[in-house]
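sorry for the late reply, my laptop died twice this morning and i had to redo everyting from scratch. anyway the thing you sent over, i finally got around to it. pasting the sequence first so we're on the same page, its 363 residues, then the predicted structure underneath. double check i copied it right bc i was rushing
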Amino acid sequence: MSSNDIAAQNYFQQQVNYKIDVILNDSLHALHAKETIEYANNSKDTLRFIYFHLWPNAYQKNSALDKQLLADGDSKLHFAKEKNKGFIDSLNFTSQGQKLRWEYDEKYRDICIVYLPKPLLPYEKIEISTPFFVKIPSAKISRLGHIGQFYAITQWYPKPAVYDVDGWHQMPYLNQGEFYSEFGNFDVSITLPDNYVVGATGDLQTQSEIDFLNEKSIDTTKKKVLPLTKISNAFPASSKKYKTIRYTQQNVHDFAWFADKRFIVRKSEIKLPHSGNAVTTWAMFTPQNAKSWKKATQYINDAVYYYSKWNGDYPYKHCTAIDGTISAGGGMEYPNITIINSTSDSLQMDIVITHEVGHNWFY
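ok and here's the structure:
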């Protein structure tokens, strides 16, 4: 038997399925949420605890992220005002109504350890639930963040660390990398004022919101680009009426969402080269950047098509690019969706969108 055969026999991958209900409070820049996970132990090991990432706690002074940024000469987080920092709290882990003991990691407050009510045997599952509250930091210092009432909600929920053949991989949040995560299924419901436009990981299940986005797309494609640039870039008042929109996705390792009341919406479609399946593509951008985003759906379509041609068909039903300002260079990818930093150069826009969409194949 070769070493490759042995490695294949030892290989396993845990699965984590999520049900999350979240409410955006856009006056406090905060999230009120509840999460239930189903954790499947596909290993041959018995687990007595699970490490969770609490990555919004990275946006505090003296965190691992703060120290990493300082070492790189970036002191924005270290000297940020308290209102611009972020955190996650109000955690209360339970399983089948039983309160679970948990504690923060000795070194990192963006990691915790949750002790299970009984040993989780090989090939068994457990459900764990917790409420949580997130204070959203300023996007000038973070990838999770807001600028006014634009929201980039990424790495925002309690997430089990990876357990593999080498054991647990609990790690503090650093902006050098963030995607060693367990794959699973997501069912996420987002409640927020109903004049927000939302782009997210996952397939939108709410028909009224599908109609809302389709109408937005039809409305903006009827107009020429230049008049769109004359639309005010100021945030309109939030509607007093709220909506709840639901997304589901299978076999992804993360869930991100973005919301802005100013977003202009463009919708397109591309057929994959091998299966012929259709992928819906979306571009969501602000009026001030309308000119450089004029051909954004074409760039997304080309990226999805050619990566599919060369690397295997895109496995999901939609691909979205979001216009946003974050401290992450040109852009940042998440399953199904990418955020693109502002640029006035159409060629650069094409390059960045193509690069970030490509991460759906290579994170």
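The chain has a mean pLDDT of 92.
thats about all i looked at so far, will dig more tmrw
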